[in-house]
Design goal:
Chain lengths: 81, 426
């Protein structure tokens, strides 16, 4: 059974809080609800950004998600394009 | 901002060609931060390492793309490039602008940024190079409200779709590339402005195999115009070319004397499938062997034209060399009707089937072409629900094994492994 959107969002936030690395790929959130379609998970994560709970972190070619409180400053360290 | 000593860059101005160093010095007269680009670049030439930092959380509210964060790792020394973010602005279809609009864009960019641009970037967008985080929201407001122009895609988004000029100016276009590009751009606004995928995703639209947007080399889904029926031949015009009365290639190579036009050598002999010949003073084409490469049509545009039953070939999976080496897109659907009459229904279904599969199966930072390579073409076309055809075969098989799926064998081969192992220990 797929989670409700609200429960899915909570699971995503929990994962973003507890994961060892602060920045996560959208695929890392798929396991928050193995029954949900990738697009549903993507929309939930993007909603959380809209609500100001998650931030996008983009290298320019890839986008990751993070809790704002877990990123030290505005800049990213990873040397990817 | 102080000028820096830049002997290595200055040397680049000594050649006979235009120099970006000269241009940037000129720009620095009104935008002094440009001195710091030159200074930092000079330092990179001696240090042999970049001083740019990639990425960040810059963006505008509601969008998860369109701004590419760039910072200097020596902000004290080069304060003008402490922030130097790139803004991607979605280009209009076919890149038609009025000069007024271009001036307006430049005025906006002089106001909020470095004034440096890249028209156009390899994605097709207008690239505005270099601004600070605090300028992004006001720039975005003016861009969208005063100029009616939007940001393009970046990151793991659908990138700004791009098309060749198509039927707006080109008689060879086999479908309306502008309409198709515009329609899909509107349809997929969410995918363009917010990340949706394991990695970037691009589609590009060319009206014929000349592929003026290089769709086959740089898009995950390349939609390239073609035709199913026969090349239209005007035999009288063929004779005019042979007689030298019409310039070959529309006169495109007239800067030099190439000698008399030679139909055999320049057209028939260069046909990649060898499907053309002269017979009784008439040019003949065996159309079922023709790959629709456009060569003969390019050489003799007044004599040869694409057929009238037109549509597009769909190729999937091109990419730049970042991870595993560059690759062209692979042919998946040889012919598809591409029409606004049914809102590009077949193409939309195709795109969404690829996305649903790739979002599930693609690894992080894996382009769809790499996912295809990993699972193999037979698996990919099965996912797409497409019957294999000879055109999918790139080379004779080197793997002698034939694998059968349960459903392909009469009666199937369901096995109870436990039962089996009772008799045959592993
Ligand atoms: C050593 C320094 C750099 C390296 C090795 C590098 C490398 C690359 C590579 C490999 C790409 C992908 C090209 C493609 O797929 O077509 C790219 C794209 C890009 N880079 Fe860089 N880059 C560097 C510095 C910069 C700087 C300093 C900026 C901006 C200030 C920048 C902005 C961009 C942008 C905006 C794109 C996308 C261009 C487009 O889509 O048209 N890069 N870079
Ligand atoms: C359904 C039954 C069987 C299957 C699916 C099977 C499959 C295979 C496969 C895949 C190979 C490797 C072939 C290669 O790499 O060139 C092989 C080799 C071999 N099999 Fe079988 N096999 C079967 C039955 C048997 C039986 C009944 C025997 C002997 C009584 C046998 C003897 C061998 C031998 C000696 C080789 C090595 C041949 C060589 O190195 O040239 N196989 N088998
Ligand atoms: S790709 Fe073909 S149709 Fe499009 S502009 Fe180029 S030649 Fe014309
Ligand atoms: S389009 Fe290309 S393949 Fe077809 S007849 Fe002309 S040259 Fe030959």
């Amino acid at each position: 059974m797929a989670l409700s959107i609200e429960d899915l969002k909570l699971a995503i936030l929990e994962k973003a809080t507890k994961s060892p690395k602060p920045q996560l790929y959208i695929k890392d959130f798929y396991e928050c609800d193995a029954d949900a379609k990738p697009r549903v998970v993507k929309n939930a994560a993007n909603d959380l950004v809209k609500e100001g709970k998650l931030m996008f972190w983009s290298s320019g070619s890839t986008t990751m998600y993070a809790l704002k409180s877990r990123i030290k400053n505005e800049e990213g360290a990873e040397g990817v394009n | 901002m102080a000028k820096h000593e830049t002997p290595l860059l200055d040397q680049l101005e000594s050649g006979p060609w235009p120099s970006f160093v000269t241009d940037m010095k000129h720009q620095a007269e009104t935008k002094p931060e440009v001195w710091d680009i030159l200074g930092q670049l000079e330092l990179s030439y001696t240090d042999k390492i970049t001083h740019w930092k990639h990425g960040g959380i810059v963006g505008v509210f509601g969008y998860g793309g369109g701004i590419v964060g760039r910072y200097s790792d020596l902000p004290k020394r080069f304060p003008g490039v402490e922030h130097f973010h790139t803004v991607r602005v979605a280009q209009p279809s076919s890149k038609y602008y009025s000069t007024k609009h271009l001036r307006d864009i430049m005025n906006l960019w002089e106001k909020y940024g470095s004034g440096m641009t890249n028209f156009h970037g390899s994605t097709g967008d207008i690239i505005l190079l270099g601004t600070r985080t605090e300028n992004l929201e006001p720039l975005f407001w003016d861009l969208t409200h005063d100029l009616g122009q939007d940001l393009g895609g970046s990151g793991s988004n659908l990138r700004t779709p791009a098309n060749c000029i198509g039927q707006s100016r080109c008689e060879w276009s086999c479908y309306d590339t502008e309409e198709c590009c515009y329609f899909l751009t509107q349809k997929y606004q969410d995918e363009i402005h917010r990340p949706a995928f394991p990695y970037k995703f691009k589609f590009k639209f060319s009206g014929c195999a000349n592929d003026c947007v290089a769709a086959i080399a740089r898009s995950d889904i390349a939609v390239i115009g073609t035709w199913r029926d026969n090349i239209r031949i005007d035999q009288a015009a063929v004779k005019e070319y042979v007689a030298g009365n019409y310039p070959a290639n529309g006169g495109a190579h007239s800067g030099r004397d190439w000698g008399k036009f030679d139909l055999q050598k320049e057209v028939i002999g260069l046909c990649p499938t060898g499907c053309m010949w002269m017979e009784g003073g008439q040019l003949k084409i065996d159309d079922k062997e023709c790959t629709r490469c456009m060569h003969c049509i390019n050489v003799m545009p007044r004599a040869l034209r694409p057929g009238v039953d037109t549509g597009a070939t769909i190729c999937v999976g091109a990419k730049a060399p970042i991870l595993d080496g560059a690759q062209f897109a692979t042919l998946i659907v040889p012919f598809m009707k591409v029409s606004k009459d049914n809102e590009f229904e077949e193409l939309v279904n195709f795109i969404e089937t690829v996305w649903d599969w790739w979002m599930e199966v693609g690894k992080n930072r894996e382009r769809v072409g790499e996912t295809m390579q990993r699972v193999g073409l037979p698996t990919f076309i099965k996912v797409m629900g497409i019957e294999p055809i000879p055109q999918h075969v790139k080379e004779p098989r080197s793997n002698p094994y034939v694998f059968w799926q349960d459903e392909e064998v009469p009666g199937g081969f369901e096995r109870d492994v436990v039962e089996f192992r009772k008799k045959h220990a592993a």
